[in-house]
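tool_call: predict_structure(chain=1)
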Amino acid sequence: MSVDVKAATLAWRDGRFAASERPVPEEAAVAVSINGTTHAVMMATPSDLEDMALGLALNERIVRTIDEVERLEMESVDGGYDCRLWLVPQRAATYVARRRQMTGPVGCGLCGVESLEYATVSLPKARDTLAVEPAQISQAMEEMAEGQVLGRRTRAVHAAAFHRQGMGCIVIREDVGRHNALDKVTGHLAASGAEPALGFLTITSRLSVELVQKAAMMGCGLIAAISVPSALALREADMAGITVVAVARGEAFEIFTHPQRIVGAG
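tool_result:
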């Protein structure tokens, strides 16, 4: 499936209507199953779905490392895509025990959870391995913008990217869902053996608590966003030791938590 299509519009410009067309992003239903049991069904941009499935498994603590995924199968089906993850036996048993805490197939991160323990997870503490110059934040945001091919065509998708000092933008992924975009980055880094603690993330969306939790599970200590974070996201970032940089536009940005990773701020 193409990631975007042309939509006919009637545009009002210069005081008159004229026939026009605009690229709009595709959106497809994507089912993620674990050892034959549906874990989630979400709407996503139909690209890099293998990365998304692996990233989802890592970020939602279904697996601790990519080695616990025995195999991944991807199939195009009527109405969307089916991503099937098969876990090694020991981890599969752990997943079955977790499923007993949940009611029915899960359509989003916290839906159906009977116990709030999964909503208030204990996050790993980020390592202090970075010393990022202020100019690198602006440069990274520019690199992400330059890499948003689908975003430029449609103006309707989110992006997430990972950057390494001295290496620039390592990977950028786009999706109609901001969580999906970050999961795709996570999956790519895991599959390529990259170390998240040695770089930082940038995102185009509002910084919600779920994105902070995903960054923490990745082991990434710095995340920079275009928009303002939520208060809960900041509390989670503070406890996890994550540096939150937001309102990053042009050469300006604001540091909300743990400024020590930005040279001259801590």
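agent: The two ends are 47 Å apart (CA to CA). Proceeding to next step.
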